[in-house]
Amino acid sequence: MGVVGIFVALSALSGEFLIALFSVVAGLLFLFLIRSKAEPVLVDERAYKISEKASRRTVQIVSIASAVVGLCLVSLSRIGYPELLEAGLSLTFFSAILMLVYVMLYRYYSKKFGD
């Protein structure tokens, strides 16, 4: 995939769109060929459970931390650092969207799996 990145960068520098298009298509075909020859990897339920717990904890930590930092930046913008307002609002909105997506997906999967 690094080779595809190099060709896309060269395409951007030279202004030739076809180089980027060709390299991305060639990279996808290469990945498809590699995956078709590889044997499927068996993943047990323990690995899924670990992944679920890690993902949930990551969402919790990132959403709370970004909300707190965002609110601190908004507060600092009101006491004399106005350049921090946009960053604070961005982090706060990011946190709200992250929590909203989490709740929506939680409800979806809870209905899907009958919880």
Tell me the major beta sheet.
none
- How many separate domains? 2
What's the number of helices?
4
Q: Label the structural class.
A: mainly alpha
pLDDT < 50 runs, ≥5 residues: none
Radius of gyration from CA coordinates: 22 Å
Quaternary organization: single chain
What separation lies between the terminal Cα atoms? 40 Å
SSE run? HHHH
Average predicted local confidence, pLDDT:
87
Helix content: over 70%
Strand content: under 5%
- Shape call: flat
Number of strands: 0
Descriptive report:
This protein is mainly alpha-helical and 115 residues long. The chain has helices at residues 2-14, 17-37, 45-78, 85-112. The mean pLDDT is 87.
Question: What brief labels describe this structure?
Answer:
115 residues, mainly alpha, flat
What is shown here, in short?
The chain is an all-alpha fold.
Note the topology:
Blueprint: H1 2-14, H2 17-37, H3 45-78, H4 85-112
Helix pairs in contact: 1-2, 3-4
